[in-house]
Give the backbone structure.
Amino acid sequence: GFYYSFTNWDGIGNGANFTGLKNYVELFTDDPSFWNTFGYTLLFAIMTVALVNLFGFLLALLVTQKIRGQNVFRAIFFMPNLIGGVFVGFSWQFIYTQVFNFLGQKYSLPFLQDWLSDTKTGTIGLLIIVVWQMAGFMMLIYIAQLQNISDDVLEAAEIDGATSWGKLTKIILPLMRPAFVSGLFLTLSSSFKLFDQNLTLTGGSPSGTTELLALNIYKTAFSQNMLGYAQAKAAIFLIIAATIGLLQLYFGKKKEVEM
């Protein structure tokens, strides 16, 4: 891929002519759409990371309580993670375009109509399906860490008069830090490379405003037949995403040691 980023290969023939840094120069000087898409991807990744980890942790807290059928709830919450991204995207597309429109027209609820034709609601719709699909996986990671917290510590806190909120903020959350570091890294990498759901749900519509970077690179390569240029985009994307992910992991681990 790095080699082809220095060529003008169209992805079809054998004419991969070496062009030096031409693709990279064009990318940095004459392609504002790439950086707009990157900005949207970064914003979407931040929202995804926050929501997936929040709901994953809340689900983990719920199913680790002594409630009847907790194993059934764990299985139900995890099941969306087993479904392929393409199927998820098409299924939720039907819900947004058919079910929501039907309910919106029948009960005169404008906010339910034409969800995928608007940038704001299209983004919200994409966020919903990503959180719905990924939260169950993060739940398992947080369950494993919660079960490693000694009951003796929590019982001692109760004897000392700690409230449920106090135990959560002073004991559970600090001891959950290793899981949070891993969870943030996993969700950050997953949200940056999100492709299937974006392709099948919105396809970047309207006018590319809900287009994530992986889909932008795909379209450059296979719709515009500019595979060499797409590889240059992919190389820059890889470097930026890896840098952000590794920095998050480094500072998270450093903070964990300081604790």
Q: What stands out?
A: The chain has a mean pLDDT of 90.
